[in-house]
Design a protein that fits this description.
The protein is built from 15 helices and 20 strands. By secondary structure, it is of the alpha+beta class. It folds into two domains: 133 residues, OB fold (Dihydrolipoamide Acetyltransferase, E2P); 277 residues, Bira Bifunctional Protein, Domain 2 (BirA Bifunctional Protein, domain 2). The strands form four sheets. It has an eight-stranded mixed β-sheet with strand order 8-12-13-20-19-18-17-16, sandwiched between helices. Helix 7 crosses helix 9 and helix 7 packs across helix 15. It starts with a helix and ends in an 18-residue tail after the last helix.
Length: 492
Amino acid sequence: MDKESKLLQLRKEKINELKNNGINLYPNDFKPSCSVNRLKKIIKEKSDSLGEDGDKFCIAGRMMAINKMGKSSFIRFKDGSDQLQAYLQKNRIGEETYSLFKKLDIGDFIGVKGPLFQTRTGEWTLLAEEFTLLSKAVRPLPEKFHGIKDPEKRYRQRYLDLIMNEDTRQIFLKRSKIVAYMRRFFEDRGFIEVETPMMQPLPGGAEATPFKTWHNALGMELFLRIAPELYLKRLVVGGFEKVFEINRNFRNEGVSTRHNPEFTMVEFYKAYADYKELMDLTEEMFEFITKQISGSTEIEYQGQNIDFKKGWLRIPMIESLTKIGGIDPKILDNTESLLKFAQENNIQITKKDRHGKVLTKLFDVLVEPKLIQPTFITGYPVEVSPLSRKSDNDPKLTDRFELFIAGREIANGFSEINDPEDQHDRFLMQVQQRDEGNSEAHIMDSEYVEALEYGMPPTAGEGIGIDRLVMLLTNAKSIREVILFPHMKKSI
């Protein structure tokens, strides 16, 4: 029997003993009066009035350390906000209660009531006058010294990761704040938050492989949404001129440090706006959130200093391929020359790909990894932009941008197609690409085209990857560090 199994067996034997002695291991009548965090604020605000004869506080939490010293003991416990030390004396809480305490373990939840005092080292400590077992833990926590280092275990048992690793806890507290500030940003500018279907009869709004399911009552196949775009734009048609949705999307793709099959985005649409206005809005939003989270527009991400101050670089894709990617401008209009260039540089591109697709794949390899500071890449080819408005200056390109930071895509936005005939033709182009073997190309969505036929005002929309933004603002190397329960293979 290994060490962990022996500890578990000892715990179960102790639990049976406590039960046989009539101890209620899981009572539900203890009500804390404040959190540890709130108590520490009280200490800062009026420490002069605190002491053994002062106010009494009632706090609950999980025991994280026990230092038994015969007739008295120190414990350290934590709630969802912070940690606190408590001091237990046999003659103060009673022999029966103290005897129970001595049978408890690290990981158990307890309630303590009493005044505060300062130890010889100056640490404010709760002097226990009442002590209550609230929940007995069966399994022992990992050793505090070693913590949980194995990423596999941390992701599978995130609850242990949150208990033992304060850095993990801070990441998810910060994530919550990032989403809250994002919501406030939109609401302050008159956007309304909406919800659109997560199960859809047709997958649309992005090029991706969907997850399929079946609805028994309706007798039809449904798809988990890959994006909420086509439903949000239906709302613009209906007169909701500024909408946003903080949404879960699902794409049946690989798992990596940057991808999780289930992920979070914010997608928003604004009538009477174009893609340039959204770039301005994005700069403003990122600067606002970064200041709120970091206290500055500058952050450090994986050893790189990144500045979110407004005024980001904006460069057309074609220009980026020559200035950053190093491609000779003379071959940019020749598909065969580009394919030859790709082969010479060991870049995998199929000969079936259309010209715009070839340009985009070259960009992904040669340019994207070099875009460290916030950079908008504009002017994407029509072939890879089935929902984007064509440029008035060059019909082969679209009024679209993608935002890159730290060598990865963070956002995608564009002026929307509101010409139903153009949108129908783009869908037909996508159908042809599916016939040619592109399984991620769009399916014809006649109902969406019908909605456009009722008229949609000039509109611009954008999607921002919240998981990747959180990665940046928490200095997380992998997307799994910022998703509470990332998808993983079954454990063996």
